[in-house]
Amino acid sequence: MAEILVLVDHADGAVRKPALELLTLARRIGTPSAVVLGAGEAAASVAATAAEYGAATVYVADGAEFSERLVVPKVDALTQIAKEKEVAAVLVTSSGEGKEIAARVALRLGSGLLTDAVELEAGDEGPVATQSVFAASYQVKSRVSRGVPVITVKPNSAAPEAAPAAGTVEDVAVAFTGNAAKVVSRTARVSTGRPELTESAIVVSGGRGVGAAEGFGVVEKLADSLGAAVGASRAAVDAGWYPHANQVGQTGKQVSPQLYVAAGISGAIQHRAGMQTSKTIVAVNKDPEAPIFDLVDYGVVGDLFEVLPQLTEEIGAR
Ligand SMILES: Cc1cc2nc3c(=O)[nH]c(=O)nc-3n(C[C@H](O)[C@H](O)[C@H](O)COP(=O)(O)OP(=O)(O)OC[C@H]3O[C@@H](n4cnc5c(N)ncnc54)[C@H](O)[C@@H]3O)c2cc1C
């Protein structure tokens, strides 16, 4: 079967969930091989997790370059392995960093790039990716017509499924090209304890309807009862009620969770562009004519300050 290279994202020694989703999807189009870069002493446990999710081979490369330099060392490693092993496709998570890595790898391989896939299937002439475009108004199927396809896949596009495989570890000595931006300092982001917005299976977002920064309290309480991430509309972010890092939409983050709850959000096209591929959408809005109700699976017409606390209480009771 065709060898599919999967870049495995990891943090603090743990494999990130989108990487497990990639390994699951890779099995639909060939035999996954994991690429584990800069994991240091955690490499063995990261490799073991990749094997549990179907990696027949795990390519491991280490070196200070991976933490000291941005993006390029990972591009060097992926390109080298893709060339040496003559792989059939390269899969990377659709994050900011992931898309930059993927674009550079595709350029170096002289092949094509597909970004933000939400589904992958095997085709006669190579893997076929489904993308959701024009604010999720259309689904298109695309295939790279020349060279090794490099595809980035949105988090939450598949449920991770374990499928234990050999996970044979191969150490790789990467020939680094240098010339990458150097990291000069690091400041840890203050953790909210909530899941990462783009990776979370559930997102609860608040809009101008929350009325003030303090209004986000009811949104956060509902999110915490569900183990969800908190999102915000641009109107709420522009008003200074919630950080820009949490903005969902065309000029914010793209999310595609299993469940998206929009509270006090009207449903402008630019907001929809960031969340319309969510599997189940719930809206709470006091205006029955709000456009958000055109795309919801469940809609509640009501005041979010009455509805959200009741929902939080009910979830807690269960
Ligand atoms: C180039 C460009 C890029 C943009 N990018 C983004 C983007 O990335 N993300 C984004 O979100 N927007 C973006 N926008 C802005 C977008 O057009 C909308 O202005 C914005 O999404 C509106 O936010 P909102 O729904 O929170 O506010 P509003 O449109 O004002 O809607 C507030 C809603 O809350 C309801 N409401 C009020 N009080 C309550 C209550 N107590 N209980 C329940 N419901 C209540 C109202 O009925 C209303 O429907 C962009 C715009 C432009 C031009």
TrEMBL record:
What SUPFAM superfamilies does the record tag this protein with?
Adenine nucleotide alpha hydrolases-like, DHS-like NAD/FAD-binding domain
InterPro entries per the record? DHS-like_NAD/FAD-binding_dom, ETF_a/b_N, ETF_a/FixB, ETF_asu_C, ETF_asu_C_CS, Rossmann-like_a/b/a_fold
Residues annotated to bind FAD: 208, 233-234, 247-251, 264-271, 285
Provide the Electron transfer flavoprotein alpha/beta-subunit N-terminal domain boundaries: 4-187
**Keyword hit for Transport:** yes
User: What Gene Ontology terms describe what this protein does at the molecular function level?
Assistant: electron transfer activity; flavin adenine dinucleotide binding
Cofactor(s) it depends on: FAD
Q: Which keywords has UniProt assigned to this entry?
A: Electron transport, FAD, Flavoprotein, Transport
Domain of life, per lineage: Bacteria
Biological process terms in GO annotation: fatty acid beta-oxidation using acyl-CoA dehydrogenase
Protein name in UniProt: Electron transfer flavoprotein subunit alpha
Organism of provenance = Streptomyces termitum
What lineage is this protein's organism placed in?
Bacteria, Bacillati, Actinomycetota, Actinomycetes, Kitasatosporales
